[in-house]
Specification:
- This protein is α/β, with parallel strands linked by helices.
- It has a single domain, classed as P-loop containing nucleotide triphosphate hydrolases (Rossmann fold, 3-Layer(aba) Sandwich), CATH 3.40.50.300.
- Helix content is 36%, strand content 29%.
- It is built from eight helices and twelve strands.
- The protein has a six-stranded mixed sheet, with helices on both faces. A four-stranded antiparallel sheet has the order 2-1-4-5, covered by helices on one side.
- A hairpin with a 2-residue loop joins β4 and β5.
- α3 runs parallel beside α5.
Length: 249
């Protein structure tokens, strides 16, 4: 039997001397959409950064596996090349590097494909239209002067072009109005329609993103541990009851 796409096994993580994740277990299969919800300070972004190998976080126990391979000690760039993608909560500006050149270099690193700028421009035009992006953004510096929604759409464009096998969306709905949220969620679904085997782990505070992404499984993370998992109805219950219902008495 084939190994799951992505496995997190009893993951404990520390930063600045404090234990933040206290035994996280989570498995994502190919083509599945998982949502991870939790209040501020629960460890959601710590988990996202740890999964991409951020040196700011120390794994003290547990393993991370990707397609059966133990990647716990892999460097960030190796994980990215292998097909793990992180859409950041706060995408960074990269002065002096245009979107199209960033994509060209990233595609070369990810797949060893060296397209000319013209070839890549032709390849991304359809995606920019599908993501409701102005074509002129291809020549602007990465995220420089972009609105919140434009930054997030640019992340989805990267996901579409780089064709990862699992996408981790770290609060990609953060700071978006409802119209921008719909566009970003639609973009994720557009990518999934082209690549149905793509696994998605969407980290979010709010149910509103899940109304558009329609997750297979919802997990609730509180104080560094997943305290409950279930179907989409779990997000509805969370919306009605709040996180207090899952916090220790």
């Amino acid at each position: 039997m084939a190994a799951p796409l992505f496995e997190i096994d009893d993951l404990h993580v520390r930063a600045d001397g404090n234990e933040i994740l206290k035994g996280v277990n989570l498995t994502v299969g190919a083509g599945e959409v998982h949502a991870l919800m939790g209040p501020n300070g629960s460890g959601k972004s710590t988990l996202a950064s740890t999964l991409l190998g951020s040196p700011d976080y120390e794994i003290t126990h547990g393993r991370i596996r990707f397609k059966g391979d133990d990647i716990t000690d892999w460097e960030t760039d190796v994980r990215g090349k292998a097909g793990i993608f992180l859409a950041f909560q706060y995408p960074q500006e990269i002065a002096g590097v245009s979107v199209i050149n960033f994509l060209r270099q990233s595609l070369s690193a990810r797949k060893g494909i060296d397209l000319s700028v013209l070839e890549l421009r032709l390849a991304i035009m359809e995606w920019m239209e599908r993501l409701d992006m102005d074509p002129s953004f291809a020549d602007r510096y990465v995220n420089e002067g972009f609105s919140g929604g434009e930054k997030k759409r640019n992340e989805i464009l990267q996901m579409a072009i780089l064709e990862p096998e699992i996408a981790i969306l770290d609060e990609t709905d953060s700071g978006l109005d409802i119209d921008a949220l719909k566009v970003v969620a639609k973009g994720v679904q557009e990518v999934r329609s082209d690549r149905p085997e793509l696994g998605v782990l969407a980290i979010t505070h709010y149910q509103r993103l899940l109304e558009h992404l329609q997750p297979d499984v919802v997990h609730i993370l509180i104080d560094g541990q997943i305290v409950d998992s279930g179907g989409p109805e779990l997000a509805h219950r969370l919306e009605n009851e709040g996180y207090e219902a899952w916090k220790p008495a």
